[in-house]
């Protein structure tokens, strides 16, 4: 199969041909149904802790199906559902061609216009992201919903203001100003759902402890337009839009909530 993507010929329904785990039992994303989540006090007794550091010259790139920032500084998380310390590797987003769609996780069947993923690997047990990526306890990903407001998100503005410089595939730039990814988190990180899942793109490894925050971050329509202006290839290629995998069955998994 040619490279995977989100089109009719290479989209999510076709991935199982090259990546059989797509039909696995702990796939992501899922539809989050809060009333079906089990409130687990163990999650609150051991609060999720975020220790992110400023990134001096953060690299922003267009790999062709999203926009990604690669992290070099020591930014770590622990607690909540996690055992050990997980180190931030990268963050990226998924978004729609219109505000009615774009997120990967859904909330009671509702899609948000976009979803931000902060990808961490288990640095206590593994020496690199590459080693951790296919281990059942290898990764932890923060899922943050984006919703539209009339004000731009200041933290994302440092990125959306320069997206035109990575408009084409394989372009990358360094963000001049020091950037601390903590600015991307919602105000309240104590309210989240967590479950055992997978990467939402090939290779779809079943290696992710998902932590999806209840509180969305707010972005402007202009910022959404900036994401939708990114291109899959070189000048004249199709825009990167609708780069989301639809939800998979929860199956026998337990969805836990850190709050009532
Ligand atoms: N949408 S996601 O957060 O699940 C995600 C994170 C990271 C990768 C990269 C896998 C690279 C394998 O070599 C792919 C998907
Ligand atoms: Zn993602």
Automatic annotation (TrEMBL):
InterPro entries: CA_dom, CA_dom_sf, Carbonic_anhydrase_a-class, Carbonic_anhydrase_a-class_CS. Its EC number is 4.2.1.1. The keyword Glycoprotein applies. GO terms for molecular function: carbonate dehydratase activity; zinc ion binding. Residues 2-259 form the Alpha-carbonic anhydrase domain. Pfam families: Carb_anhydrase. It catalyses: hydrogencarbonate + H(+) = CO2 + H2O. The keyword Transferase does not apply. GO terms for cellular component: cytoplasm. SMART domains: Carb_anhydrase. It is an enzyme of class 4 (lyase). Keywords: Glycoprotein, Lyase, Metal-binding, Zinc. Transmembrane segments: none annotated. Its cofactor is Zn(2+). Belongs to the alpha-carbonic anhydrase family. Reversible hydration of carbon dioxide. This is Carbonic anhydrase.
């Amino acid at each position: 199969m040619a490279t995977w993507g989100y089109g009719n010929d290479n989209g999510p329904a076709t991935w199982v041909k090259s990546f059989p785990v797509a039909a696995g039992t702990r796939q992501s994303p899922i539809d989050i149904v809060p009333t079906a989540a089990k409130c687990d006090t163990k999650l609150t007794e051991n609060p999720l802790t975020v220790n992110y550091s400023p990134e001096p010259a953060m690299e922003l790139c267009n790999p062709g199906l999203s926009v990604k920032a690669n992290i070099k500084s020591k930014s770590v998380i622990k607690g909540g559902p996690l055992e050990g310390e997980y180190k931030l590797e990268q963050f990226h987003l998924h978004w729609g061609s219109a505000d009615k769609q774009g997120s990967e996780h859904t909330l009671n069947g509702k899609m948000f216009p976009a979803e931000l993923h902060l990808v961490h690997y288990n640095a206590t047990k593994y020496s690199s992201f590459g080693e951790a990526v296919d281990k059942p306890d290898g990764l932890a990903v923060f899922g943050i919903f984006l919703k539209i407001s009339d004000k731009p998100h200041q933290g994302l503005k440092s990125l959306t203001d320069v997206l035109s410089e990575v408009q084409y595939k394989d372009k990358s730039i360094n963000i001049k100003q020091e950037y601390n990814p903590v600015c991307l988190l919602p105000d309240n990180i104590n309210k989240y759902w967590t479950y055992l899942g997978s990467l939402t793109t090939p290779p779809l490894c079943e290696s992710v402890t998902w932590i999806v925050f209840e509180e969305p971050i707010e972005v402007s329509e202009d910022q959404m337009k900036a994401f939708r202006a990114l291109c899959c290839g070189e000048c004249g290629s199709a825009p990167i839009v609708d780069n989301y995998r639809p939800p998979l069955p929860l199956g026998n998994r337990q969805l836990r909530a850190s709050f009532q």
